[in-house]
Amino acid sequence: MLDQIESLYRQTATGLSYIDNQAEGDVYVLLHGISSGAKSWVKQFLTLSESCRLIAWDAPGYGESTALLTETPMATDYAQQIKQWIDELTIQTPVTVVGHSLGAMMGAAFAQLYPEQTKKLILINPAQGYGNHTDIEKERISRMRPELLERLGTAGMARERGPHLLAQTTPFNLEVVKAVSSGLTMHGVTQASYLLAYDTIDRYLPASSTDTLLCYGEKDTITPPKGMFDLKKKYPNLCLVSLPKAGHLAYLDQPELFNQHVFQL
């Protein structure tokens, strides 16, 4: 199944690698998390090939994508890259931004900066960031994943992290985790880890003027449901949707239910 989406890979003139089904219809921008990549959306690409246009990036520094110029990025730096990407593809209509985990923070920043280009914001098990924590905690978070990647390598990351990312540890789901882990680079993960440590989604959600969908996996142990309930208390505009039997990679664990809510099938 993963081989089927290899032909959908493209690269922008500025060096961003992404998957594009080039279909007609509403445009959905798919943003992966810190330990993932564009291929993690494989089940969406294979089941929604004709109903809407899906574009999923390998975030800056991931896979074949060029890294950001700054070593201390905030979510706005990634949001500017999303805008450049959309503009390079000459997409004229507002897009639905679907951000998973750390990608949710990037997506929220994009929606805040470019409301005229945002049709809807959808958050999937969002990482809220540690920007409001102590300096010691920020430093610990910023170093944790790069050190893990250096110690384990990409294959080791897949073996160690895979079971924690999924509630449905099927052979195929684990194969997807292995595939996206192979695209992790020290530069990309270090930059993304800085974002996770030093920024917070709280900087971007208050400015949201439209209802935002927040899907969460009931079995997620990385960004547990309690954190989603706390976000709802702070931001009443969030519309919570639970995904039973889904872990952190909810769209991989329960694709049919996820697709129904997100793509309104």
Automatic annotation (TrEMBL):
<feature type="domain" description="AB hydrolase-1">
    <location>
        <begin position="29"/>
        <end position="255"/>
    </location>
</feature>
<dbReference type="InterPro" id="IPR050266">
    <property type="entry name" value="AB_hydrolase_sf"/>
</dbReference>
<dbReference type="InterPro" id="IPR000073">
    <property type="entry name" value="AB_hydrolase_1"/>
</dbReference>
<dbReference type="InterPro" id="IPR029058">
    <property type="entry name" value="AB_hydrolase_fold"/>
</dbReference>
<dbReference type="Pfam" id="PF00561">
    <property type="entry name" value="Abhydrolase_1"/>
</dbReference>
<protein>
    <recommendedName>
        <fullName>AB hydrolase-1 domain-containing protein</fullName>
    </recommendedName>
</protein>
<dbReference type="GO" id="GO:0016020">
    <property type="term" value="C:membrane"/>
</dbReference>
